[in-house]
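User: Sequence in, structure out. Go.
Assistant: Echoing your sequence, followed by the structure tokens.
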Amino acid sequence: MPSDPALPPAHPALASEAPCPCGRPGADRRPLPYGRCCGPWHAGAPAPDAEALMRSRYSAYVLGLHDHLRATWHPRTCPVDLGPDEPALRWLGLEVRRHVPQDADHAVVEFVARSKLGGRAHRLHETSRFERDPATGRWLYVDGDLHGAAANAPLPAPPSS
């Protein structure tokens, strides 16, 4: 998606030409620029589908954009306090395994997000549920199910939950 000059800058510390933290590949298989990937969603444009919203949420965790996380979380499941980020937490990458639209207003996205904290590598494997808000038409994160060992282990704040 091209940047909309009418939208405010999404994240002043990240140039719109820089590779997007979510790693979504373009036609040349290199990560899309932030300004043509998650940047517009961070600036307030509605994500076109659940996968785009999930990727924007991952990038929001990378960039510390808690306002975007809260704005894209369904009100019935959004926590009161997102809590501070771990200062030494580094997000290393995102792999979207599948995006399954269930109908026009519901979808699931399965992903693996990799991070490093305190010298230890972590993998967060989750299948997230998304709903489109009937009043606004915007996609919202509802909740998710963890897979594998991650389902039983404490992890850093996940990209979608």
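User: And one key feature?
Assistant: Strands lie at 90-103, 106-117, 120-132, 139-146.
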